[in-house]
## 1
Amino acid sequence: MMRVAGGTNDLFQSAFSSSGNEPPSRVSSAPMNSVTRLLPAVLLACCASAAHADETKGPLGGPTYRSVGPDGKVTFTDRKPTDPQQRTRQLGQTVTAPLVGAASGPFDLHPATTMPPHPPAAEGTTPPVDVSGKPFPPGLPDAILDVLVHQYFVQTLNEACVRQRPALAERFQTGVRNWRDRNAEILDKSNRISFARFTAEQRDILRAAARTRLAQLVPGPELAEPERAAWCDRMGTDLARRQFELVGDLRVAPILYFDGL
């Protein structure tokens, strides 16, 4: 076996010399110094990120709730408050506001003469958005709902009253046909907006809300036959007298002003 003089270092020295290359010099300490200087900044960033994440968690890692009492006092707790007078939201959680406002009473089919209020989304919630991801114009979902309730009512009036009073079928059918002709522009635009700007799930929500409001307007199954007949006569007369028009109803103004089609 050949003996290499000078040990391993002499072997590497010889190899670099024979190839015309210089042996590698000691690694510069500059990169190491740069890393050392960056460490404090990295640690501070990590601490800040952890602190921000902890704001949404309670002391045991659970959710944190922010509540505002009737007196305006703000409190934070890891237990969800049960007091209905407190406005509570969970920190770090995004909640979408309802598509339409809650009903404050029976639906009024008569044209509204004033614009209904459209308050902004409550604190801690984001407004509902259309298929493009943009928030709906104020009042537009409620306006579409208003049209749906009218449509459902007129359709129900026609179907129920033709069965109830077959001798007056022509009267009811003519009244419904004339109502649709008078309100055709609003009906058409509302339908186009609902399919162009609302998702299928949102349309289902609107239909369900319209059926709920409709149930407050039509006779229930417990109503006696004479009372049903009287209801049909009264509603048929009001329809012919244009008591249930969409034209002139300020609740549908957001539909008329909408230009996003």
## 2
Amino acid sequence: MAVREDNPTGGKCRQGVPTLSAIEDLPNALAVIFEKHRPSRMPFFRRLAELPHAVARNPALLGQIHLVYQAAMHATRAAVYYLPHLDRPALRKRKLQIFIDDDGLACGDTHHYQLTRAFRSIGAECLLDDEEFGELGELCHYLEAETADFVRLAPKLYSRSLGAWCAVESLSADWMRALADALSVHFPHFRHEPYFEECFAQKVEERHAAEALEVTQTVLRARPELLDETFRDARAIAEALDGVWAHLDRIVRGAEATIVPDGSIRVSRWRGIRNPAPATAQDAALVQVEATQAAKVSAAEN
């Protein structure tokens, strides 16, 4: 009987079917992939934390960050409704709890609404209203580069296997803490907004990660032929997610470049928004930084 050696878990497969040990080792094998794509290792979070306060507090910059981050999160929240292989009643119940944790919070609240309130609490000039985050193809008109790619890819991968779901749930606690830490340097209350504090206190993302892995193993024990595509899609979404952080890093680097020699900051709308509203006086103006802040900026540039 031929033995295939290229199984992504490192376990041997006979006649194309993974061994039971390969399925049982799924969490460890995926952890190796996820460590290579750990969000907090990306320069975006460090660069955001190290921005001069006057730059980091720019409402236009915060609005751009909100748009990109919320769009990526919206894509996964919408795509999770189309997860395959979970049709049995017991599995539907477990999937429902994930939905409730995201979209069924007390008093009609959702993680989407909580995130927007968190950004508005720090003065973000949000570029889209909450209900404008709708159909993903339409949303891509407001996005650029890797973020649009991620938003297009998420529903495809989520509906094809459970791999992308495992990846996103396993990586989400890391990126949420990294974002909360970075913006809390400039806005100390930010990490205490419900979007972050409730998830951290209740370990929501960690529970979701464990549940995704356990449910996926249950499915694979019944259908081991799905293992390869599970790994393929987990890796694909993790790579696409790296692109979202890279795009955000370019936005932050662009904000750094708006510091002009006299220490002031030029504010402009992001060109990625389709049919933007007419420029306001704030958009056209130069926002003057206090002398002490300007001195810090000049020193950092030298």
## 3
Amino acid sequence: MRILLTRAIPSAIAVKGLFVQLYRAFFSLVVMFAASTQSAPAQVRLGAQGAEDGPNRMQPWLVPSPDPDTAAHAVLFRPEGAGPFRLALIAHASTQNELRRAQMPQPEYRALAAWLVARGFAVLVPQRPGHGATGGSYLEDQGGCDEADYSRSGRATAASIASALNYMRGQAFIRPDGAVVVGHSAGGWGALALGNPPGVSAIIAFAPGRGGHANDVPDQVCAPHMLIASAAEFGQHARVPVTWLVAANDTYFPPTLSKQLADAFRSGGDKVDFRVLPASASEGHRLAETEAGIGIAETELERALKLATKPDGKR
């Protein structure tokens, strides 16, 4: 009996030691799993995020961005029916002010979107990284006023536009050709930097540029000579017809500067139809955001859509 007890005691100690080892291993796995879930980005489901609402079937979407960790929040408008529809992508304005970007509401451009839907377009308005609900890193930072890098910021905006554009062109209800990119301010600047994107037949740019209202002063632009140089650079690679619109009372990129930018862009050999529109409310730079502004621009918008044709001449 004594022999049996002495043999049993080491066995119990061994079992206890094994249990402790297993517990420590399990605890380590739990810690590793928790760390990985904190460091790894959450998987998101791109596409529609809710039901359609309203006469233009307004619907929240998530679309890709150049940042693999950040999906861009967007709103989609479209006509009745199953399509396929031509796509119009509206690229919003921006600001160097971090607080203003963080507080930016989801851009909708409802009047402009409704105008395009009435002409058979599905309209996507994505919010780029570094803005509002989309969050993430601000990819299109232009840097300081005196040494602003407008080429880099424009290309970064263009990359965000292209990510959303290419994703939507793969949707069953969207035609892969005949797309129109409509850009406003910094969004228009990014549209000019797109070059020759596949499936895009026209670009409409409302007062494109960067660095306007330098230090919040109207009619002041950071390093305008660098802005002009970047416009010429973008024009060298652009082949899509561009309609360039600016209101007479735009204090961010006044008509005189806007014409210099358009002329520089045109020097690269691209087709540019530059138009100065009548004054819009108290600040012409917001023309693209209001129903009255779209009414002012309607004739030129119609003209721009006539340029947005396929090579065989069909709409």
## 4
Amino acid sequence: MKKKFINMKSLRTTCFSFFALVALSGMLLQCKITDAVASNCGPQHEEMLDTAVRINTAGSGTVLYSKQHEGKWESYILTNYHVIADQITIREVWDGMKGKKVKRETREPVTAFWFDYVRCSRSVGTRGRIADIVAHDQQRDLALLRLRDTERGVKRIAYMLPKDDYPKLGQTVWAVGAGLGYPPSMTSGEMAFAEQVINGYRYQLATAPIIFGNSGGALFAYSDLRNKYEMIGVPSRVSAAGFQAVTHMGWSIPIETVHTFLKDNFHGFIVGDKYLKPENRKPPSDKKEK
């Protein structure tokens, strides 16, 4: 039988009724906002669940970085390209300087939602922050978002597996994301396979169930060496048998692809490289010698 891999965005039609329910419940649950991480909920919450956000109503993201530079906060969220693809438009427009039509890309902002809880269990509302798309790669299926809020940072940041380290087959893993648009949740499973190539890039298989809405979230594993939960991948696809999604066979983008994506787009400081000021995050200009 031919192998099939479903980009989880393709499940949107069948999940429409779920989002209608989520939207309704979201209206009913608008309560007084409290600090989402005020309680000591333990490392699973603090190092995995609290680092997850919902992107708009149709995907997930993971906070990778939040630090102050020259008095302003810079906070970044990683997600899948297909989660924010509808916010990117390329059109042909007339360029008067060049005297011809050129392709121009426009990027609409997205909204990242954090969910607030009491007693580490009861959801009492959401907090949304607007974010801009600062980098994207359709082939790698990755995108980087930067929060517009420069006055407040984000408390919970995901730890990332070192680039040269690898999760082991049979190792327990957790998939974290806003499946079907619900508040982020955790499912557990095991690492199963790590050598599948999709669109020219390596993917890894885990048995932690994922579904539409988990895209752009995170796959975690616990490091006994470093005593913390670490992000080891970005859930992106599920296997399929015919038209049926096999949710316990989920494919994630490995962490070395994330490292390369960030470095290629001048955001390597997120994974430990030297900090670059925003004006320096671009290719060197190709100036011809006179």
